[in-house]
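Q: Predict the bound structure with manganese (II) ion.
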Amino acid sequence: MTNNKKVLQFVQESVELATPDKVVWIDGSQEQIDALRAEAVSTGELVKLNQELLPDCYLHRTVVNDVARVEARTVICLPKEEDAGPTNIWKSPEEGYRMCKEIARGKMAGRTMYVIPYSMGVVGSSFSKIGIEVTDSIYVVLNMIIMTRVGNMCLDALGEDGDFIKGFHAKCDIDEENRWIMHFPQDNAIWSVNSGYGGNVLLGKKCFALRIASYLGREEGWMAEHMLILGVKAPDGSKKYVAAAFPSACGKTNLAMLIPPKSFLDAGYEVECVGDDIAWIRVGEDGRLWAVNPENGFFGVAPGTNKKSNPNALAATQKGTIFTDVVQNLDNNTVWWEGLDKNPPEHALDWKGNPWNGKTSDVKGAHPNSRFTAPAKNCPCVSPEFDSKTGVPLSAIIFGGRRASTTPLVYQSRDWNHGVFVGSIMSSETTAAATGAVGVLRHDPMAMKPFIGYHVGDYFQHWIDMGKKISNPPKIFNVNWFRQNEKGEFLWPGFGDNMRVLKWILDRCEGKVDAKETAIGYVPYAKDIDLTGLDYSVETLESILEVDKKKWAAEAEEITGYYNNTIKDRIPQELWDSLETLKKNCEA
Ligand code: GTP
Ligand code: SPV
Ligand code: MN
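A: Predicted complex:
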């Protein structure tokens, strides 16, 4: 397997603590995958779906109290509480290790411990980093094989002395009261106990690729962001890449795979997907920002995914996919979720495994945070640059959230530092991706509130500092697909039609189109958003492009409160300056 002493020691210590009966090293081979699938089916951990209609696809149901990330139990363990900052739960490393070890001690007795060597990013790329996750869950192993690059090549890349991110996961008793997701940034270590839900247990994803990586990025001069990456091919064959940060369940997967409206397709536009959730970003020798997606699959929201909203995501789920907490259609042993089609199965099991009739039931069949884990290679629009070791150069960075009012459909920041301010003041309505109330407006700077592995003020400073190193920075924008009327209906069609906004953004990057200077930045003239083929009134468009100074004055007051009372310190002067400018602009 490996001669790497640190790996062997980590496995040895994990075994001594959790006392599994057996240790299995995961090599990612097809034989091993087949055997693990068969074993999980025999114990009921996985349900084998119709192999003709959905080859190599399986269904998993989590325990009912374990369906989303648990932000109140996600911890950053650093020696000083102030270094974790106001957006994180803090414990000292001593206390964190003590709690996790006490909970996990002996908890794998009678079970198997799997050792997963994996890489975030293409092995051999200077962006990439290796992790080792130990777990007692076959579901975790099979998901990690889809979501990351798993196998002996990762051990080979480590050699005898290489360092890696340690991940310890034990299901324990899936006890909510003792569920903890703890991060030890100084030790490159993650501990997860008492959960079996994706974001809490696929430790390569949010735990490593965002929380630990954001900490490393600050030390090493790069960025780990909650961003999709997409490429737009223009009719003249040129390609431009953008990265976009939206909070959980706010449209990253959908934008990353969008199919442009017919008039754009006819003209020769194409969109390709490099990533749908996470971007690792570095300054290139050319002074531009270059981004890779460190993942290898999509852990996407199922509800709402359909042939019309996201045909590329749907196509990606038709083979080799694990579905979690969706409806099982018993007539043909396939899956269903709200928003898939208008034909819910009558003879089905809901996400909890209870009999469910979609025609008569008034409760939802799939959990709102039900998900698919699909290999990226399945996606019809996956970018040819998906496996690129150098990544793709960014022309634009886009921030966006769910805002029923105030924030216009799109606006452009004045420059990098103002763009950092725009990211820092993001607010969005909460979704089912994390436990807790849904639809509550909260601050979510850069869509990273739950994922920054250190103090949010230092994170803002890191953005400002990065700006000084980029001679040719991407332009920074903000979008809002979620403006509503008084009846609560969305005012913008969204999905594929977001291409119309992307086009304006790219035109701005190339200096091809004018814009209106407003209190908050540059906003499009309605005439410059191409509505060809869309039955949509210019008045409505104007209404969602409007910047209401009164509302923004109130917003600026609220942001002042957020800066002063929540973040409190470590906010870069550049951001205070932008806030002052915003206030002045709203008075004028
Ligand atoms: P995570 O995987 O949790 O990070 O989510 P995500 O940001 O990838 O969100 P995703 O694309 O899965 O979309 C989440 C929800 O937003 C789904 O229910 C979509 O139907 C809805 N959605 C996505 N794009 C749009 C849009 O342009 N307009 C509207 N109205 N809804 C959208
Ligand atoms: C998110 O919540 O932003 C997700 C899903 O992408 S999870 O992996 O659970 O974090
Ligand atoms: Mn996400």
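A: The two ends are 68 Å apart (CA to CA).
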